[in-house]
Amino acid sequence: MSSFYDSNLVLIQATLTGLVLALSVQVPLRMGVFSFAGAGSYGIGAYLAAILVLKQDAPALVAIALTVVFAAFVGLLLGLVIFRLNGLYLAMATVAFDLIISVIANNGGTLTGGATGLYGVITDFTMPTMLVLTLVALFLVALSERGRTGRRVDAVRDDPELAASTGIKVRRYRLVAFVVSGALGGLAGAMNVLVRSTVGPLDIGFGLIVLALTMIIVGGSRSWKGAVIGAIIFTWLPDLLTVIGDWQELVYGVMVAAAAIFLPRGIHGVVVDVKKWVQRTRRDREGVPAVALQDEGDRPTSLEEAVQQAESVDRPAGPPVARLATHSEVK
Amino acid sequence: MAAETVETVGTPGTGTPVLELRDVAVHFGGLKAVDGITMALHPGLIYGIIGPNGSGKSTLIGAVTRLTALTRGEMLFDGEPFQGVSPSKLASLRVARTFQTVRLLPDLDVRANIQLGADARRTAAADDAPKPTWWSKVRGDGASPAVADAIGRTRLEGFEGYYPSEMSYGTQRRVEIARAIAMDPKLLLLDEPTAGMNKTERAEISKLLREMRSEGLCQLLVEHDVQMMIDTCDYVFAMNSGRVIAEGSPREVVQNPLVQEAYLGRKWREHA
Fold first, then answer.
1. So what's the ipTM on this one?
2. Which of A285, A321, B1, B258 is the least buried, fewest Cβ under 10 Å from its Cβ?
3. A259, part of any domain
4. pTM, full prediction
C-alpha cells in the first residue's frame, strides 16, 4: 500500500485537483448554466496562490483561503455580467473568460512570470490537508444535491418557469452557480500549484475545459459521484494507456466518443437507471396501485340509482351544439 | 353533484376579492392578445375561463403569474397591487398554478415533485409541520404533512416512488395539481387541468376542486371541456380575441349565442 502510495503520489494528487476542477464545471451545469469559467478560476487560483506564497510568504492555508474567496468574487462579477446569456452564448463567453486569464498569465511580466510561469512555490502544504480540503468541497457539493436544495437545483435546470412559479429565485441560483464554480476552480488551481510548486500558461489553457468536461460527461453530469468516477478514470487512464504506445491518444478519443454516444448521462447515469429498473421490477411484481377510484359512496349500487344520478346532473338545456362539446356524451 | 351550487351563481362573491384585474391588457406589437379584462375573483368560488384557441386565455394566466408584462391595467391580490412583483415572489403570496402541458421534473419521483410545491410553503405561509432542522432540510427526506395531504387528496397513494415517465398522462396531471395544492394556495390557477384525463379522473378532479372550494380556496380554471365547466365552476368568463364576450353562470354562458358563435362558428348556431 505504502509503496503504491509513494509511487503514485502525483497521480493521486492529480485525481484530487481534477475532481475539484470537474466539480467547478459540474455545479453550474447541474443548474443548467453552461459555464466553463471553472477553468479560468483554476488559472486565477493557481497564479494567485503562487504569488501569495512567493511574494508574501503566505502559509498554504492562508493562500488557499484568500485565493478561494477572490476566485469566488471574480465568479460573482462574471456572473453579474453574463448571467443573462444562455446556452451556447453563455458557454462562449465563459470560454473567452478562460482565454483572457491565459493571456493575462502570459503577459503579466514579473508578476506572473510570463511564458515561463512561476516556480519554486514551496510551502507547508501536505497531502492530508489536500485530502481534507477536497473532501470538504465534495461534501458540500454532495449536500447541494440533496433535499430541498437538490430539488430546487433540478427545477432551475429543467424548468426555470416552473421553478419561479414554486417560489424559487432562479436568477439568484444562477448567480450562486458562478460563485461556487469560481470558488471550486480557485481551490483546484491553488491546490495544484501548492503540490506541484510550479505553474505556467500551458497549465491553465483550453485543455482544462476539455479535461473537466470529459470527466463529467463520461462520469455523469448530474451527481458528484459522476465527477468522482470521471476524475479517477481520466487521471489514471492516460497512464495505463502508455503501454499501447502511439495508439493511446486514439484509444482515449474513441472511449470518450463512445461514452458520449452510448452513455448520454455518463457511467453514474447507468447506475441510476439500473437502480430505477430494479425498483420498477420489484414494484411491478407487487402490482400497480389503483388509479383514481371514486368514493364508494358516490358509486351507484343499482341501475335505478345510476340513472337517477345521471339525471340529477345539471346539464344545459340549450341547443345541441353546446352539448356536442361535452365530454360525457362522447362514447 | 354541483347542481346545488349552480343556482347561487350570478353573485360572484363579496368582500375583498382575492384577485382583481382592472382593464388588464397585453399587446404583442399589433396583436392584442388580452385587451381590457376586468374581473374580481372571490374566495370560496371556482371561476372558469372558456374561449377558442388564441382567445387570450393562456396569455391572461401568464399575465397574472407575472411571466408576461402588462401593456396597461392593474392587478390586485388581496387588495394590494402586484403587477410589479417577480414571478417567484408570487408563490409567497400563495398563488399556485398548473400548466397547460404537464411540467414535472423528470429526475424526481412523485413525492419529490410534490415536495417542491411544499418547499415554497416553508418560505411563505406558516406550515403546520414542525420547523425542520437545517440537517433534515438538507437531507430532505422528511416529507412534510402537506405532501401527504396533497397525495391523499389527489388519490396518488401508491404512486409516491414513481417517476413521471412511468405514469399515464392523467396521473401526471394529478401530480401537477398535487404540487400546486401542496403550496397551500389562496388562489389556484389551473390551465386545462383535466386535458388528457379519462372520464373517471375528470370527475375526481372536479370533485376535488369543489372540495377545496368549500375550504375557501379561490380557483380560476381555464377549460375546454364544457361539461367539466358546468359541473365545476360557479362563474364563467367567455373570452374571444382578448376580450370577455360573456360572463355569468356556466349555463348562461354556454347558451349565450355570442359564445356559441365564437366557440363553434356561425354555421353551428344556424344548424341548431
1. 0.83
2. A285
3. no
4. 0.83
